[in-house]
Amino acid sequence: MLNQSKILVLYEVSSQKVVLGEVLSAGRADALSMWRAAPEERGPLNIPGFRLSLFDADGREIAGKAVSMLTADAFLGGLRNAS
Fold it and tell me: pLDDT per residue over 12-56, tens digit each?
């Protein structure tokens, strides 16, 4: 059975979320492994910034974390290289 989990790369300001891209499995790495490997930014959770949100096969958000611009760009760069 194919795992359909995915990661959304977001920029969050106040209560608004802008979706920058979607990441699915890449080669041997699944979405969960990629999400766990991404370094998390420390600091207050209410500041604007880049986020990774992990969604399960049913489309529910199951985890999220704040990330740096470089980490978000690395995920989005993987999207560009895969297409």
Answer: 988 899 999 988 765 556 788 888 889 998 876 667 899 999 988
Element containing residue 76 per DSSP (H, E): helix 69-82
51 contacts 15 by C-beta, under 8 angstroms: no
In the chain, % helix, strand, coil (3-state, to 5) comes to 25, 40, 35
What's the rounded Cα separation, in Å, for the pair 33 and 49? 22
Identity at 3, one-letter amino acid code: N
Q: Are 62 and 56 in contact (CB under 8 A)?
A: yes
> CA 74, 79, 81: angle at the middle one, nearest 5?
90
Place of tokens 């490997």: 37
Widest Cα–Cα separation across the chain: 39
